[in-house]
Amino acid sequence: MTKQEEQLWNYIDGFCTNTEKAEIEAKLATDTAFRQLYIQLLEVNKQLATHLEIDEPSMSFTRNIMEQVQHEIAPMKLKTKVDKRIIYVIGGFFSLTLLAVLVYAFATATPNFTFEMPSINLETDIQPLLTLTALKIFLFVDAVLLLIYFDSYLRRKSKRRTS
């Protein structure tokens, strides 16, 4: 289909814009070949409109199709089974490769390190930290944590009873 035919079909079907419509009408008034093509396409359009009848399916068409679909055997899922030997071979290959790299690293390494135990001074005096106020704060924090735990325990029990 040429560009002229496409423009004319859009003009005949009413799918062109106003500017395109004005251009086509101006071209129809001046160009005789373009006008001849327009007349031929109009005749084709009239013949199509008169000879084409839209076939409508019967009233029970949908029902018949749905019955045929119901009688068809439902397709099963494709079940593929992977051979476990393939998985073992691939895993073994990677394990052996990793082991070979590790053995090579240990075989070519030269141990030249020295190790000394770090010295820790454990002779600190903690007596000033153990005051009556510190003991009260510790016991208060423990009591708050105990109450929080007891609350969550009771909430879990009440949820079990309601469900």
Q: Please, could you describe this protein's structure?
A:
This protein is an all-alpha fold and 163 residues long. Among the domains are: 3-51, no CATH class; 133-162. Helix content is 68%, strand content 0%. It has helices at 3-13, 18-30, 32-51, 61-71, 84-108, 132-162. The protein is elongated and about 115 Å long. The two termini are 72 Å apart. The model has no long low-confidence stretch (mean pLDDT 87).
Using brief descriptors, characterize the structure shown.
6 helices; single chain; 163 residues; mainly alpha; elongated
SSE topology:
Blueprint: H1 3-13, H2 18-30, H3 32-51, H4 61-71, H5 84-108, H6 132-162
What is the percent of helical residues?
Answer: 55-70%
Shape: elongated
Cα Rg: 45 Å
Strand content: under 5%
The gist of it:
This protein is mainly alpha-helical. Helix content is 68%, strand content 0%.
